[in-house]
Amino acid sequence: MDYGTLFIQQILNGLHIGSIYALIALGYTMVYGIVKLINFAHGDIMMVGAYIAFVMIAVFGLPLPVAIIISMVSCAVIGMGIERIAYKPLRNAPRMWALITAIGVSFFLETLFNILFGASSKPFPTISLEPIQIGQLQISKIMLISLGLSLLLMVALELFIKKTKLGKAMRAASEDAQAASLMGISVNKTISIAFAIGSALGAMGGILFAMAYPQIKPLMGVMPGLKAFIAAVLGGIGVIPGAMLGGFLLGIIESLAKGFFSVFWAEASSWADAILFLILILVLLLKPSGILGKNIREKV
């Protein structure tokens, strides 16, 4: 395979994994946009979604589309439950308390699923499709399905936020929760909906990730969750288009580091994750608001 074809192949692979990062990053950015909380348990919601789909397919024999719907609905309910039990009592507490609680929820979910399913990896049932061959370029149909579903959900979310009454309420609560409540908007309901939508998208991201790398385990959400957080910060956390942009950029950078730059630098593949975290450090140092974010001055 020549360098040009290899480069295009890795760009396509990057768009595939980047679409998954973008879906997960949307959960981070929706929650942060309203309650200014970094929900570090969000990556584990992705894991929960993959396990629910696995049980629906492997145990109950349901088709994949039905398993996806059940998983997304279940994770939406779980996300609202976590918000109600763990985060709502701390809404007026210092942010550090909520952050520590988020880490605690993350460890709880990982330990729970470790007890329920064991620490070993389990093969995720997926569909077998012949790839599309264009010269030396190989395009996976799974990749096309994942990319199409991700883009469809992202567009649907953007239309929901911009066009619907509930979406406008979420935008108002994000701008000023106190003023929104004075205007008759139920901020508690808005926050619950944000957690539900973010968790459902995280579940979808987990299923697509399990289809791309067909195995699941209790710790499968740790690294993708962290990378999705980097994507949200890169694009501008709290900005929905920023989460999408950051996810795709991060996926492309990771794919190029693992598959293209490794041709010229043998150790590039092993440095891929370190490069992504270096990007996080550089963004926080040079432009903390992210690519599409705006600097906000706080009155003191």
Automatic annotation (TrEMBL):
This is Branched-chain amino acid ABC transporter permease. It is a multi-pass membrane protein. GO terms for biological process: D-alanine transmembrane transport; L-alanine transport; L-isoleucine import across plasma membrane. It comes from the Bacteria. Its main location: membrane. The keyword Phosphoprotein does not apply. One of its GO terms (molecular function) is L-phenylalanine transmembrane transporter activity. InterPro entries: ABC_transp_permease (IPR001851), BCAA_transport_permease (IPR052157). Belongs to the binding-protein-dependent transport system permease family. LivHM subfamily. The chain crosses the membrane at residues 20-38, 99-119, 139-161, 193-216, 228-252, 264-286. The lineage of its organism: Bacteria, Bacillati, Bacillota, Clostridia, Lachnospirales. Keywords: Amino-acid transport, Cell inner membrane, Cell membrane, Membrane, Transmembrane, Transmembrane helix, Transport. One of its GO terms (cellular component) is plasma membrane. It is found in: Cell membrane. The keyword Transmembrane helix applies.
